Structure formats: C-alpha cells, structure tokens
Amino acid sequence: MGLFHRPTVAQPSEGHSFVTLIQNEGNNTGRGFIGWRDPRKDFNTHSKLIVRRGEEAIFENGGSEYVCFPPGEYELETQNYAVIRSFREALSGGQTMFPCRVYFVSTEQFEVEWGTSEAIGYTCPLMGPGAQVRGGGVYVIKVQDSEKFCGTILRDNESYDVDMLSKKLLSRIYKRVASIISNVLEENQINGMEVSKKVDEISELCMPRIQTLLDEFGFMLVDFTAELFIDEEQRQMYESAIRLQRMTAQGEAQARVISAQGKVGEMQTMGDAYTTIKGMEMLQTIAENPGAGGIASAGAGLGMGMAAGNAFGNIAQSIFSGVQQQPQQPKQSNFGGASRFGTGGQEQPTPSSASVPQDPIEVLEKMKQMLEKGLIPQAVYDQKVAEILSRM
Predict the structure, then answer these.
(1) pTM assigned to the model
(2) pLDDT by residue (tens digit) across 183-238?
(3) Which residues does 32 contact at the CB level (< 8 Å), separation at least 6?
(4) Cα dist from 267 to 95, 260, 270, 353, whole Å
(5) What's the number of CA atoms in the CB half-sphere (13 Å) around residue 369?
(6) What torsion do the CA atoms of 85, 87, 89, 91 make, to the nearest 10 degrees?
(7) Taking 50 as the threshold, does the pLDDT of residue 368 lie above it?
(8) Which of the 8 DSSP states describes residue 338?
C-alpha cells in the first residue's frame, strides 16, 4: 500500500479512478516536516481530501485558483470527469486539460539554530569603526500564510523540512540578518563589552526587522534569540580602550581640582579686591553682549528695566564703596600736648591707609572712563556723579 488509498468504483482508463483519496502520510509528517506536494497533477471531481490535525491543505485548481482547507474531510470539485476524461486526453496527446494539485503544510512551530559564519562588523561607541561580534541563536518559526509558502517555496520542491529551511532560505538571508544586528547595535550605542548582557534587548529589537524578510515567504517569526560575544583579541582591545578612557577622565578631574584650588588661592590673596575685579569683569561682559541674555534684555516692561538699573547700580556701588564723605578732623593743640580748652593731651590716631577716602576727582575720572567704555549706563553714571558732588 503506497502513500494514498485509492478506493476505485470503476476504472474507465488505466491510471485513473473515479474517486481518489488524497491525504498526507508516511515520511511527510512528524517533527521537522514543513510542507509536502502531492505528486498527482490531476484527479477527478468528487475526490476526497483528508487534512489531519496540525496541518493545512492548499488545493490548486487550474493553476490559478487556491483554496486553503483546515483539518477535516472534504470533497473536491474539479473539471475532470471520469466518463469523458479519456476522450479529452486522447485529443491532447495524454495531457490533462484541467490540472489540479494539493499541497500539505504544517501549522506547527519549529526551531532553527543559526550561527555567524563570519564576524559581524559595526561602528562601536567605544572602539569606533571596525568593531566585530560573533555569536548565534535560534529562530522559532511557523508558516503563517500557507498559500504564499506554497507559491514561493513548496511548488518547486516535492517536500520541505527544517534542514532545507536552514540551508536554503535562512542561509540565503543571513547577510541581511547580520546587517540588521549591526544596525541595532549602532543605533542603540551598544559596545562589544555589553552585547552579552543585552541579548534580550538586542533580540527584541531585531525581531520586527527579520519578520519583514520572512513575510515574502509566508513565514512568521515567533521568537528570535541572538547570543552575541566578542573574541579574545577584541576583548583585549576593549579593555585597553576602557583603561585609557578612565585615565583621561581622572586627568580631567584632577585638572578641575587644581583650577578650583587656584581660584581659592586667588580669592585669599586678593581679599576684597577680588570682588571689585569680578564685578568689573561682569560689567564688561554685559556691555559687550547687550542682546545676549543681559539683565535688561531678559525683562519685559518697565519693571524689569528698573531691576536692570538697580543691578548695575549695586555692582558699581560695590566697586566704588571706598568713596566716603571726608570727616571733620579736630584741630590739635601745640601747647604741651593739651588743647586750649583743657582737654586731654592725647595724641589723635593717624588714619590708616585702608581708611583714607579716595580722591573724588580720581573717582569721577574712573567713572567717566567706565561710561565711555560702556561698562555702566548713563543713568548710573549721572547718579554716582551727583552723589559724589553732594559730598564735596
């Protein structure tokens, strides 16, 4: 008994029966089976089709009509009739005038292992161009569109199994899959030292792109794993790059510490003069950049304009805080160290150089220079001049 049981009601001509039983049997079922094409190219109408659990049948009638049958029993209708087919074939030289075929396709999912035949290159955020990874993993695949699978793959093969899928289809698209992995690593800035820790993330990002490749063949990618790693030579290069990066970071941190210590020493050495100098530098910056975020340009309306004037005034006040009204000094007596009015002949303390008021003329000259250089606005200049003149 062959693959098919053919219960014959009558035998009008050699090789054809009135009713044909079509089913998938023998070596074309079980683990690893994906698809099988029935060798007969035609059969009579009312032939019986049996589709088992875990598979689908595609009935091709006349080379253009496709019908998909789920598990069950069916009666097929064709244009071949036992009574007249011998007469028709005699006219066509024995060739059938109404070809029809049946394909059986597994609906189960199956695993296919893959591995890198060559290193996958990409541009690493740490190493730059020329970085490489190797690895492998597993495809979990099932037929999603039986009609498309039969039209693109099975019709050119009597049968199709997992080994053929791995050697023919997946090896053919391997370079495109490698390019997908490379792009995912670059787009997500994953360096070679991290690939083994981020296999889930990498696999998830690759899946929809690989699915696009399999769509044209009728397959669905149920799951995909990418176990990637770097070889020993690449690992040593990465470790050297990481050490260099750490040394550079430490050097920059040390330079910042030295710079900060220098500023602290500068403040301690200059004392109050430090504040005055920094205030003048600030006024210089504001004057040179009047439209780049200055106090006045940042405001809106009269309120912010007044705030800007006050800010300038406060800075100028801190700079010229040494200008004070000269106090009246009491006249000293030259008679024996005592005053004419019997006051104690104590010697009056001589003012220190730090408390000696600045010459108003010098201050006015400095204010004029600052106005001409644009360090202070006209309003601040007028205010300070009036204040100094009122003390003279």
Answers:
(1) 0.55
(2) 999 999 998 888 888 999 999 999 999 999 999 999 999 999 999 988 777 777 66
(3) 110, 161, 162, 163
(4) 106, 11, 5, 21
(5) 7
(6) -150
(7) yes
(8) B
